[in-house]
Amino acid sequence: MVASTAPGGKPRQPSLSQLRAFAAVAEQLHFRDAAAAIGMSQPALSGAVAALEEALGVQLLERTTRKVLLSPAGERLAARARTVLEAVGALMDEAEAARAPFTGVLRLGVIPTVAPYLLPTVLRLVRGRYPLLDLQVHEEQTASLLDGLAQGRLDLLLLAVPLAAPGVVELPLFDEDFVLVTPQDHWLGGRSDIPRAALKELDLLLLDEGHCLRDQALDICREAGRTEGAPVTTSAAGLSTLVQLVAGGLGVTLLPRTALRVETGRSEQLATGYFADPAPARRIALAMRAGAARQEEFEAFAGALREAMGVLPVRIVKG
């Protein structure tokens, strides 16, 4: 038997319907029973098997008046047909799972000045509301996160905005004020009406280059009238170290409100000062690629996060 060819001389590819019909006959060894098993008429089943034999150029069955037998080639190819059908079934199952929201893997990138303070809330939300979601967290600085989002290494980011990054859509979550953390005996410690102008001459401790919080703090200082030549000590790669330097009397620093309880609770040598309204603040948002396939899911996730973060010392931004 010679395999049939499509126009252009290429062998015809067997269809899934033909493979399904053959697999049913191979299992039942009876055309009527095989047709009933897959919900197909017996003439259609016979035609599908014959078309498969023609497409492959191989006799798969030996037909007699009483029974159906698999040819030697049919026995070998029946196993292959079942493997193909199982693989297609797995493909359809995977596609169905992908269509379902909040299932599968979600690769979330988070900046270091957000991760320790917001992740507990994020993880509680995911465990409680989205148990089928496989959340994978990557803590990196903003530039690295944006690169990961653009390259497809990350799906969603949790970070400070605005980003001014092309091809990125921001989903605002909340605004939070900055507070001034000082040594216990500092003259601004404990005040609730600190003017921004007080930042002009303070010994300010900031994070290393590359942290967006450093840039935000410098912008606040410039808005307050601090000159470029005013002393700024860059001494820490993380907020925990920065706060310990303040406790040691080396200067003062700015902290976002969500970090305050965690970072100042470790030392009794610290005091907190609050700025007069309007206090300097930052906005935290989710960020996704423009046109992301999971856009609706990410927007719903942002809405759920706004609800969950309402208990934090922040001002929720309406979606």
TrEMBL record:
InterPro entries: LysR_HTH_N (IPR000847), LysR_subst-bd (IPR005119), WH-like_DNA-bd_sf (IPR036388), WH_DNA-bd_sf (IPR036390). Keywords: Activator, DNA-binding, Transcription, Transcription regulation. Gene3D superfamilies: Periplasmic binding protein-like II, Winged helix-like DNA-binding domain superfamily/Winged helix DNA-binding domain. It comes from the Bacteria. Pfam families: HTH_1 (PF00126), LysR_substrate (PF03466). Belongs to the LysR transcriptional regulatory family. This is Probable hydrogen peroxide-inducible genes activator.
